[in-house]
Amino acid sequence: MKIIEIVEQVFSINSAIKNAYIDFSKMDCSVVAIKTDQYINGEQIIGYGFHSNGRYAVSELLKKRFIPRIKESDFKGLLNDEGNNFSPEKIWKVMMHNEKPGGHGERSTAVGTLDMAIWDLVAKIEQKPLYEVLANKYGNKQFTNKIFVYAAGGYYYPGKDVAMLQEEMKSYVDQGFSTVKMKIGGASLKEDLTRIESVLKIVGDGNNLCVDANGRFDLPTAKTYAKALEPYQLKWFEEVGDPLDFDLNAKLCEEYPNPVATGENLFSMQDARNLIRYGGMRKNKDWLQFDCSLSYGLVEYVKTLGMIKDYGWSPTRIIPHGGHQLSCNIAAGLGLGGNEIYPNLFQPFGGFPDNSLVENSYVTFPRFVGLGLESKAKLKVILEKI
Amino acid sequence: MKIIEIVEQVFSINSAIKNAYIDFSKMDCSVVAIKTDQYINGEQIIGYGFHSNGRYAVSELLKKRFIPRIKESDFKGLLNDEGNNFSPEKIWKVMMHNEKPGGHGERSTAVGTLDMAIWDLVAKIEQKPLYEVLANKYGNKQFTNKIFVYAAGGYYYPGKDVAMLQEEMKSYVDQGFSTVKMKIGGASLKEDLTRIESVLKIVGDGNNLCVDANGRFDLPTAKTYAKALEPYQLKWFEEVGDPLDFDLNAKLCEEYPNPVATGENLFSMQDARNLIRYGGMRKNKDWLQFDCSLSYGLVEYVKTLGMIKDYGWSPTRIIPHGGHQLSCNIAAGLGLGGNEIYPNLFQPFGGFPDNSLVENSYVTFPRFVGLGLESKAKLKVILEKI
């Protein structure tokens, strides 16, 4: 059992949107294919991986450091002890050889992208959906093909008014998402409140609406917004301050009685642990959003899950950033609280398999193998060309 | 006043050494030249920058994101308000456009490398050494051309025995470095103690010796080493645990009465702030080692200095990682406690100008302009070819 080729290609996932921090006009994404010498029913087993939006493609890191380390290693050392499948943990160690500790950004994307493809391989060789593989390996063998999902959108873009925002949100509701998320902090508080109220007209209860400041606010602004948002009883108030300003987050949590959510820009177990240790997050109501593919992949994510458990947190408090099928699989196989979905963005990489059913913000997947990427026709076409 | 070209080239700084975490066999470095339309005495003003060892070259990040953002910006927007020099702060903002908060690694190296070249330009246009420019801009106009330096070495490498370690350390003493640093944690505690005692025979007092674990130890190992090291009264015990495990560091500081040092793998003001907030570091005895060129450069470093001041720390507690003339200049111009130097490694990028005088671990620089890189003949040859 051997890896015979690893290929990377960059795809644009640009769009006209912007959040309170960046615009997405130049956003792109590394996609990798790991090709093996294994065949099932005459078909070569290939693992595919890519990374979440918000961070840029990592071609050079892949081509200069992480892919060569895998290629130059002893291939038997990449297999599990039984020799009947690849070992994501052993491959992870090979990739991280000669990397210093700390400084978790960019390379965490590169490793996460390859790690995703490796798990796709592992599940394909087992001929199971990844979530089932994960439940068997790490969980109590309990998995589900139905998870909570919410529609993330509500970005700012030039010329977008309240009516257009409402129309966008209505389209999500029509697609089965009763819970939605919108951006705040890119306009004045007054404008943002008008936007929020307009969306509440579409989704009804505050518990159906999350708002996301994308790390924009300092503490006084955070407190001002928190006070103004409180009466709406929103599902959560997301990434209020700088992702590493745990003190700001802790002070916010002291004053704001409703749920907060953060973690998408913490790219290692160690960074996630500092949020848990110092961020004042409340395990009975707040939400953790660590992104697997931007954070050294699933091998590291399992460590992060172990860490939160040690601190008394349930995995159901995690609803990851990412919006793709890796996040879907870990939610379904490791008992997370659900997944973020961008129905109109970052396609065809986001979302779930064709013929999935979305009702009341729960998605039910059809049967698939691996990550299920090939169960999405538009994505399959792209992947097969790599 | 215009930037007319920005070029990058990668240089190998590989060597056979290893610390407790990585070997340096594939280590390389991005070097940039920012060429302007300005001439002084018929010579074109070019700013040069590179980054510290320990992190890899960042060519693609430079060529795809950070250099194009500078090139595509309005050139007048890159100048200071008087229009008579470049503005590092404005250029920094241009570079960080469309970068999300958090995830401080790799890109922090790319921005730091360009930022270094920009400060070289600024000081060359002023026809002053950078340390004088910095003292005038941020300090009380007090600067010095004499700073504390210590010799960092004592790495592990194949076949290196205690006699060779002693010989290495003796060579540093002969070069004027009375204070030296050696690696620990890459061998057993017993072997490391033998190595430490052998070096103490060369440098005499424990206050002349620092030891560096490169983030390798868990808490029990850290405590075992701390107990064993205590009687030697060493100058400092460096990077004992994972750089982001502030809790480990705080627990170590509770038990170990002698100085500790850390911070070289924290690549933003926010990460540095978390060390100050949560790391248990003692402002009367411990040392901070934030690396300017790996941490978004001097524009960010000034924020970090402001932050430590807000927490009651003196800049004299900072002795930065890096071993090059950027660190020398910030130490000399911003009142830091000194600088690390690798006399035998990462050449010709490390060290200080030719004809500098090293005595009792203090270096005195000759007069230079900019960062003083061209005052080092071997480095000048390389830079002029870029």
Task: Tell me briefly what this model is.
Two copies of one chain form a homodimer. By secondary structure, chain A is α/β, with parallel strands linked by helices. Chain A has helices at 59-71, 88-95, 107-126, 130-138, 162-174, 189-203, 219-229, 246-255, 269-278, 297-310, 325-334, 377-384, and strands at 3-12, 28-40, 43-50, 146-152, 180-183, 209-212, 236-238, 260-262, 287-288, 339-341, 357-359, 362-364.
Q: What does the model show?
A:
Two copies of one chain form a homodimer. With 386 residues, chain A is an alpha/beta fold. Chain A has two domains: 3-127, 2-Layer Sandwich (Enolase-like, domain 1), CATH 3.30.390.10; 137-384, TIM Barrel, CATH 3.20.20. Chain A has helices spanning 59-71, 88-95, 107-126, 130-138, 162-174, 189-203, 219-229, 246-255, 269-278, 297-310, 325-334, 377-384, and strands spanning 3-12, 28-40, 43-50, 146-152, 180-183, 209-212, 236-238, 260-262, 287-288, 339-341, 357-359, 362-364. In chain A, strands 4, 5, 6, 7, 8, 9, 10, 11 and 12 form a nine-stranded mixed sheet that branches. In chain A, strand 7 (236-238), helix 8 (246-255) and strand 8 form a beta-alpha-beta unit. In chain A, helix 2 packs antiparallel against helix 3, helix 4 packs parallel to helix 11 and helix 5 packs parallel to helix 6. Chain A starts with a strand and ends with a helix. The model of chain A has no long low-confidence stretch (mean pLDDT 96). Chains A and B meet through helix 1 and helix 9 of A and helix 1 and helix 9 of B.
